[in-house]
Design goal:
This protein has about 110 residues and is mainly α. About 55% of the residues lie in helices and about 0% in strands. The chain contains five helices and no strands. The longest helix has 22 residues.
């Protein structure tokens, strides 16, 4: 993930230009990078209206105030994702959150009979 001024410059490129730039960066470490590349995609998540970013960021106070409510089961609905974990911005957080949510929902369903 990019941050600061460099990320704004990179995200001002078109998706095709971002892929080309990423290939140029990658071949600095792996010279065969461009030869092995088949296809790619690039998303500037902060430009997606329903997302406005690629991951959740919690302050200590916002986590304390809202996290338990976000992760609570509401009847048959439970949210899961990296934003509902203590490992934001990583697939591991999303997977652990999903497993935890499914387990809690299953436990609730068992109690209801």
């Amino acid at each position: 993930y990019g941050f600061g001024e460099a990320s704004y410059k990179f995200n001002s490129l078109t998706p095709k230009e971002r892929i080309s730039a990423a290939l140029e960066y990658g071949k600095r470490i792996h010279p065969q990078y461009t030869k092995e590349f088949r296809a790619g995609t690039s998303v500037a998540w902060h430009r997606i209206p329903w997302s406005l970013g690629c991951y959740g960021i919690w302050s200590e106070s916002s986590r304390e105030q809202y996290y338990d409510t976000l992760c609570a089961i509401d009847h048959r609905i439970v949210l899961a994702g990296e934003h509902c974990s203590h490992i934001p911005a990583w697939q591991e957080g999303a997977i652990l959150s999903g497993m935890d949510s499914a387990n809690r929902l299953h436990q609730k369903a068992k109690k209801l009979g």
